[in-house]
Amino acid sequence: MIAWAVSLAAQPGARTSMRGRGRSDRVSPTHAVLRHRTQRTAVATAMQLWKEETPPVGVERMKNCIIKELENLPAGKVDESLYDPRVKFQDPLNDFIGIAKYANNIRFLAESFVFSGLEFDLHSIHVRKRQDGVWVIDTAWTLAMTARPVPWKPRLLFTGTTCYVLDEANEYRIREHIDTWDAIQNQRPVSAEAVQLVAGMIADASGRWKNDPDDAVRPFFKITRQTKEYEIRNYSEPFTTADVEYEKRPEGLSQLDLYFAGENELKVRIPRTVPLLLEFPEGFNGKKKMCGVLPPVAQVKNPPKPNFPWITLRKRSLGKVAVITFDGSLTPDIAQQKRSALEVALKRDGIHVSDKNCVILAQYTPIFTLPWRRKNEVWLYVD
């Protein structure tokens, strides 16, 4: 406990991804329905057999090689033996052929006068056989890098998928590498959407003018999907919060402030973190809790107990949440509008909300911050 109190004095910032019929073809409605069901059953059976086909040894070997290749991506290393010499590369900004151009593109992203600090997270990798008989390997990923020439050093982050098309006649080497980005609809290069997306990331200095510095202490998460409307985060590491039930926001905040200011068993001042969480386990009409996130040291040591029984400490594992971000005031009506918009976008993209009652609001700026300088989020649990 004493070590926990001493270590509070120097806290590092917590760590922060696409028919008409002729008259002679008329059939009775009943016959049409039965025939349609039979066709659907036949197609479903064929698809199941197709999906279950065991990949050749060469395909499995290439899958393992791709995993290793992606591990070396931040260093700009490319194993050219994995690719056809005339490999085709395409993403929303580029379209070219040739292994030399491919390798140069990887090195350019990893370390150049334009970009640095490349990070890559592989979320999933799957092998499948297309209906034309060609084996492909699909990956889902998050890619991030820093734009060096810009004074405020913006961090560019993309989530998306890659389809590696393999050439059976050439020992299953990669003949096509096709990237798609989650944040845009038009994937054809050069996509105006893609240009606008990158330009927006470079121009965005919001982390500074919204009082949300990059080194702010916050729970660790990874972004696994990012679109124009929302992002999916994986809070894989547990963290502890100090919770208090409240009616009016200033009252709940004043109670938490007492605990963080030293009203605890060790009488130590605990550094504040972001975000402040407002949790509604039963929806906006039920009970509500205000949750202050404790700094990272609390994840490995026992934090001091509150002096007040109405404040409780909770170690929590959030897992995956869908997040929509917005500026301005955080009123119940606005929060409900944002929640509804998030649910519509998730349903459209086939993402299931695992807890339809619980909603969490996150605030990153002090409660009395001017509205146009505020940063707010709505979180929903997803599978």
What do these coordinates show?
With 383 residues, the chain is of the alpha+beta class. It folds into 2 domains: 57-204, Nuclear Transport Factor 2, Chain: A; 232-381, Alpha-Beta Barrel (Multidrug-efflux Transporter 1 Regulator Bmrr, Chain A), CATH 3.20.80.10. The protein is 27% helix and 30% strand. It is built from 8 helices and 15 strands. It has helices at 2-7, 29-52, 57-71, 99-110, 192-203, 206-209, 249-261, 332-348, and strands at residues 83-90, 95-97, 115-129, 135-147, 155-167, 173-181, 222-226, 231-235, 239-245, 276-280, 289-293, 312-316, 319-327, 359-363, 375-381. Strands 7-8-13-15-14-10-11-9-12 form a 9-stranded antiparallel beta sheet. Strands 2-1-6-5-4-3 form a 6-stranded mixed beta sheet. Belongs to the HEBP family. This is Heme-binding-like protein.
* Helix count from the secondary structure assignment: 8
- Average pLDDT number: 86
CATH architecture of the largest domain: Alpha-Beta Barrel
N-to-C span: 37 Å
CATH topology of the largest domain: Multidrug-efflux Transporter 1 Regulator Bmrr, Chain A
Please state the oligomeric state of the protein chains shown. Answer: single chain
Helix content: 25-40%
Radius of gyration: 26 Å
Structural class: alpha+beta
Protein name: Heme-binding-like protein
Family: Belongs to the HEBP family.
Pfam families: DUF2358, SOUL
